[in-house]
Amino acid sequence: MNAIRPDETLDALHSLYVDQWDWEHVITPEQRNLKFLKHIVRKIYAVVRNTEHFIRSHYPKIKPQLPDDITFIHAQDLEDMHPGLSPADRETAFCCDRGAIFVIGIGAPLRGGQPHDGRAPDYDDWTTATESGPGLNGDIIVWNPVLERAFEISSMGIRVDRPALERQLEMTGQTARRKLYFHRELLGGRLPLSVGGGIGQSRLCMYYLRKTHIGEVQSGLWPDAVVSDCRSRGVFLL
Predict the structure, then answer these.
(1) Less Cβ around it within 10 Å: N or C end of the chain?
(2) What is the pLDDT of residue 37?
(3) Could you read off the pLDDT of 134-186 as tens digits, one per residue?
């Protein structure tokens, strides 16, 4: 996907230009479970990790940081562990020791009253009950050694089926969307079940090349104040 998001909040990790690899994979009803989701996450993570070692073969000064395995945790467990922290700070606190994590169930309300992060009701399934808690979706997050914080590189999940779509439209008060074309097709059983997501291209470039600002790997226009601040720290935007 290549898109402009004029409503985006600009900072070192976000620009108006969104570039990511979007992917979808058709699945069977038997694969709509947490075990299969974790299988897909591990396949993606293995490629991300192998690429880091490939980068090192060309740039020896860049030392691989990613652990052999990715750690899975539900968003509710993160809130229980760090109830006083924001969702972003919870991710950083948990990811700093583990190196790579997948936060499950993003979008579902937590016991604290708010979801870990927002998710559309007609995209990922964040309400189906699992052995870990509600949700068949999540984010792949790695520890960024330069920024010293958790660093999201992919949002993904098993997509809604008819029951999940109905449930999530009701929960969010958006039942009027049932009249839209995609929703009519899915509710009518005319679309395949799938799992999918997006993998940030510039985010991966930032991580692999150990950059501090997205403007170092992506051409763009930035406010003069941002450009000046980066230059004062030896960071030059494209």
Answers:
(1) N
(2) 98
(3) 999 999 999 999 999 999 999 999 999 999 999 999 999 999 999 999 999 99
Pairwise CA distance, residues 153 & 205, whole Å: 10
Examine residue 124 and state whether it is found in any structural domain, yes or no.
yes
Compare 172 and 13 and report the one with higher pLDDT. 172
Which residues contact residue 77 at a Cβ distance below 8 angstroms, ignoring those fewer than 6 apart?
A: 132, 133
Residue 154: exposure state from Cβ atoms within 10 A (0-12, 13-18, ≥19): buried
- CATH for 206: 3.30.930.10
59 is a domain residue: yes
Q: Is it the case that residue 203 has pLDDT exceeding 90?
A: yes
**pLDDT tens across 80-120, in order?**
999 999 999 999 999 999 999 999 999 999 999 999 999 99
**Structural domain contains residue 2:** no
- At 40 the pLDDT is 98
- 93-102 burial by CB neighbour count: b if 16+ within 10 A, else e? ebbeeebbbb
Domain count, the chain: 1
**Tokens (6 digits) for 229:** 């601040």
Identify whether 139 is part of a domain.
Answer: yes
Distances (CA, A) of 178 to 108, 121, 147, 196: 20, 11, 42, 21
- What domain range includes position 59? 18-232
Say whether 124 sits in a helix, a strand or coil: strand
Say how far apart CA 166 and CA 10 lie, in whole Å.
34
